[in-house]
Amino acid sequence: QQGGVMKIMNRIKEHRERLGLSMAELAEKIGVDASTVCLWEQGKRIPKYASIKRMAKLFGCSLGDVIDVD
Fold first, then answer.
1. Any idea what DSSP says for residue 60?
2. Which residues contact 51 (CB under 8 A, 6 or more apart)?
């Protein structure tokens, strides 16, 4: 499971940085607290399905690409 968490946190950060967004800006755009995005990127929390769905739409990618599923 730890490997999966690492992939998710890396993918979120990669997509966020690709769009030039801060953690706070990403959080605002998808309706969560900035501290939540920080926890995701630290691998301390896994995003809920609704948040993954909103990120995929914002990032212009599939749900699987947000969480790095083949």
1. T
2. 30, 31, 32, 36
